[in-house]
Design goal:
The complex is a heterodimer of chains A (97) and B (362). Chain A has 97 residues and is α+β, with helices and mostly antiparallel strands. In chain A, 34% of the residues lie in helices and 22% in strands. Chain B is of the alpha/beta class and 362 residues long. In chain B, strands 7-6-5-4-3-2-1-8-9-10 form a 10-stranded mixed β-sheet. In chain B, strand 8 and strand 9 form a beta hairpin. The chains are: A alpha+beta (97), B alpha/beta (362).
Chain lengths: 97, 362
């Protein structure tokens, strides 16, 4: 963020994948990729799992809880940081921001 | 050096266009429809591009909608897994065509607007076009397609930047590209009419920056600075032959828009060569890869891997030697070329309009 330290997304925020972005699979590089206008970001399976839950209905807290269960570890910090970065890059949006 | 996989293909499907914008980046000598690649040629190129690693496809021109096979090309691109953007004037974007493009899997439609002032917009376009553009934008919204507005900025519209941003928001754009003119092709011929004044540039920057913040999360705004007013040159397409391939309507593969100007390059055509050979082996794509070709001050510059010495085509067009530092750079010994160009800003706005020559040069 231009104004100093990045602010973390709140646990109650409901992130939604930018409607111009879509998750694809790059058969050449054999990895998942996030595609959007004039860009592409390679993501790993964890990133993909997070982004797939960004449908505007789940909160950051719910996404963290679901993935913490799936990975049998508390991933709240990682999920929050990841989504904050994606929000700063306009790839994830939050309603009423 | 290890060779990168390309990520972006710009397919200039045709030079035919209903608009005559004097800032067009197309070359001054353009071929006619009979020289265009066929549907099968383009499909093959898209597949070859995807196999090379390309993920982004821009369908551009001219006006890509004049190609009757556009929907078929979009469907093929989508099948290959490419993220496909249609770069259009919106002239010719009827409801049936828009619906077919959506069904074919177009990812994103970018519509150009010339100005918020109708008279001025049509003076730039050279034709009546504003009504059709507004209808095209409404159609894209009605079909819920991902939608960008693109506005090329220059001396004749930069004073209305705030209004331009509001217009894009009112149209419901997801994204707004504000691109200060880059001086290639027709824009280079019209440079003295297009070049903004320093005052305009200084007034517009904070307007754009404030709008980027204000619209965050609603409309993404991309603001491309006018490179003539910058301290350092632009990292042209991420470096020569590094991520980007452009294919012209007649099939020439180029590392940059302006490359046709570099007359001593040996041009290659996708009709005769596979894209993989072109990317990895062709002399043109290898001409300015890495930094062994650099002269001073680039050679010993700490920024050389950041901006790659700027644009090779601009260096050639302005200094006559493509291995020179892009004169936009304030470190360039030829920077006086740019400072000189910045004094051109009082020329009357009598544009030389883009047109396809009636006599074809072969």
């Amino acid at each position: 963020m231009a104004d100093g330290l990045p602010m973390s997304l709140s646990p109650a925020a409901r992130p939604k994948l930018w409607r111009l972005a879509r998750i694809g699979f790059d058969r050449v590089r054999q990895r998942p990729v996030l595609l959007y206008p004039e860009g592409a970001m390679f993501i790993n399976d964890t990133g993909k799992a997070i982004l797939e839950l960004c449908d505007g209905t789940h909160t950051v807290a719910e996404i963290s809880a679901q993935l913490s269960t799936r990975y049998a570890a508390d991933v709240t910090t990682d999920v929050t940081e990841y989504l904050t970065t994606m929000f700063d890059r306009d790839l994830v949006q939050v309603a009423d921001h | 050096m290890t060779l990168n996989q390309p990520t972006t293909l710009l397919a200039e499907l045709t030079y035919r266009c209903p608009l005559h914008c004097p800032y067009c980046s197309n070359p001054l000598e353009m071929s006619r429809a009979d020289a265009e690649l066929s549907t099968e040629d383009w499909k093959r190129v898209f597949t070859q591009a995807r196999n090379l690693g390309v993920l982004q496809l821009g369908l551009s021109g001219g006006e890509p909608l004049v190609r009757k096979d556009l929907e078929e090309l979009v469907a093929h691109a989508r099948e290959e897994g490419l993220y496909t953007t249609l770069v259009t004037s919106a002239l010719g974007l009827t409801r049936p065509r828009a619906e077919r493009l959506k069904a074919a899997g177009i990812d994103h439609i970018q519509i150009s607007f010339q100005d918020t002032d109708t008279v001025n917009a049509e003076r730039i376009a050279g034709v009546r076009s504003v009504k059709q553009k507004l209808e095209g934008a409404a159609l894209v919204k009605a079909l819920d397609l991902a939608f960008s507005v693109n506005v090329v900025l220059h001396r004749g519209n930069l004073d209305r930047l705030a209004e331009i941003i509001e217009m894009a928001a009112a149209l419901g754009a997801d994204r707004l590209e504000l691109a200060n003119t880059q001086y290639y092709g027709w824009a280079s011929k019209n440079r003295h009419m297009l070049m903004p004044t320093r005052e305009q540039v200084e007034r517009s920057r904070p307007i754009a920056e404030a709008a980027i913040k204000r619209y965050k999360g609603k409309m993404q705004i991309l603001y491309v600075l006018p490179d003539y007013y910058e301290q350092f040159p632009k990292p042209c397409y991420g470096g020569w032959g590094n991520v980007y391939i452009l294919v012209t309507p007649e099939g020439r593969a180029l590392p940059c828009h302006g490359a046709t100007q570099i007359s001593h390059l040996q041009f290659v055509n996708v009709r005769e060569h596979a894209l993989e050979w072109i990317w990895t082996q062709s002399p043109i794509f290898n001409a300015f890869r890495g930094n062994d070709w650099m002269q001073e001050p680039c050679r010993s510059c700490p920024r050389k891997d950041k901006d790659f010495g700027g644009c090779r085509c601009q260096a050639f067009a302005l200094t006559g030697d493509a291995t020179n530092t892009d004169p936009v750079c304030t470190l360039s010994p030829r920077h006086e070329i740019i400072s000189g160009a910045l004094t051109e800003t009082t020329a009357p706005l009598e544009y030389v309009y883009r047109e396809i020559a009636t006599v074809e040069s072969r």
